[in-house]
């Protein structure tokens, strides 16, 4: 049997094939204008057969390699077949594989272009690749923040979301902390503080509903509603700059325990579908594993460090401190013997007196060091009393006036956070003693006066101050202090200038966790609205 030629098929048959094939077929002239597009091509391009002829769609490649869509963006060199990304009239982006052939009709040059929609196929490929990279990041990253930022970035790249947040939740106070972020403007440091202000004004947090109901929450066209709602006014600026429309919140759970939320913000014309939700859920599982691994590692390191501090404190107390105390007694006895003899050389008497003072000072320093290593009062009487005792020890040893102001003797904060606050204050006081040359220090602990939903810890001295821009990174323990503040869900501020003293301030939003507690109980506020959480006082 011989191959059937087109002329034997007949014009009617060829026309029927062109009309019925699932691939797009287009005829484009040398000026890049459509002359014909078959029905499948019209469906792929999102336009009617009457709209396309004469419309600019393709242009001749300057390298002489045929034609390509003028409104399209090339998609990498990942595939042997040319691929372009094209925006349809309805605003939806599609990815097309295409092949073009030059033809001549009635003496004119045309391109015959065949194309097909590979949007979903390419999306699945990107999602699979993103999952693989994310799994590697979770397994090998030494930093929770880095791992979650990688996950957030992969979500944005694989799904085309305008922005993604990964928010962790404290297991004790249910407070939210923004850890992973991608796609957002850079000036979002105060997002959590502004979000808490929105909640206090009556805004409802949809991500809280996702955690409470243990289900994915999809809120279509939320940007328009948020921008109309005066309760969201503190975040109108930041949310308005992001090009988004719909919002999806996916809760993070590990062994039936909520550990956070993944928030995705979809651009206009991108209605999140089942494949999007399935992918977000998979990435949320990866994020949950990363959070749990980090917590297990932190708990393990924390226990090891605590045990080591206690061991060192015991050793210092049982050996070195006792020996120093014994030495002090011997020097005191020698001093009394010299007093009885009465005719000792003045230089010997002076040396013995200095040795006694030095030994007594060393014993005092050792007691202070043991207290720093093992502040039992922190566990037994809370943060405020532990800070007062530590401040009194430093004040007596360094001839400083230190005043501690607290909203209450026992603050309503989780025990797991008390040591972080204590170490922050300890480091700040250490800097005052070592660098400031101050006469007095004021320590404030409690709710911020301008926002009762924000925890404030502030250490202010009247010392020399310094130029923040002139301090090398990592100097003055600022990196460790900043990491502690971020782990608490807040942010560190250092306010200083040469000759004007220094204020070290930590602000941590507290109300978001209580919003979850209220929703979980009888008569809760019901569904909630969007996102968030780091910390910084609004300017």
Low-pLDDT parts are: 58-79, 513-539
Architecture of the domain at 122-296 in CATH?
2-Layer Sandwich
Using only CA atoms, what is the Rg?
A: 34 Å
User: How many strand elements?
Assistant: 18
Q: Helicity level, as a percent range?
A: 40-55%
- What is the class of the domain at 122-296 in the CATH system? Alpha Beta
Number of helices: 16
Shape: elongated
Secondary structure layout plus pairing:
Layout (H helix, E strand, L loop, with lengths): L5 H4 L1 H10 L3 E6 L4 E4 L1 H7 L12 E3 L6 E3 L2 E3 L8 E5 L5 E13 L2 E10 L1 H22 L3 H16 L3 E7 L6 E7 L8 H10 L5 H8 L3 E3 L2 H7 L7 H6 L4 E9 L2 E10 L7 H68 L4 H28 L2 H6 L1 H16 L2 E6 L8 H22 L3 E9 L2 E11 L16 H10 L3 E6 L5 E8 L1 H10 L19
Parallel strand pairs: 14-15
Antiparallel strand pairs: 1-2, 1-8, 3-4, 5-6, 6-7, 7-8, 9-10, 9-13, 11-12, 12-13, 15-16, 16-18, 17-18
Helix pairs in contact: 4-5, 4-10, 5-10, 7-16, 10-11, 11-13, 13-14
Could you explain how this protein is built, in words?
- This protein has 539 residues and is an alpha+beta fold.
- Among the domains are: 103 residues, Beta-Lactamase (2-Layer Sandwich); 175 residues, Beta-Lactamase (2-Layer Sandwich).
- 46% of the residues lie in helices and 23% in strands.
- The protein has 16 helices and 18 strands.
- Helix 5 runs antiparallel to helix 10.
- The longest helix has 68 residues.
Q: Which features does this protein show?
A:
Beta-Lactamase, protein dimerization activity, 46% helix, 539 residues, 18 strands, phosphorelay sensor kinase activity, alpha+beta, kinase, 6-stranded antiparallel beta sheet, 16 helices
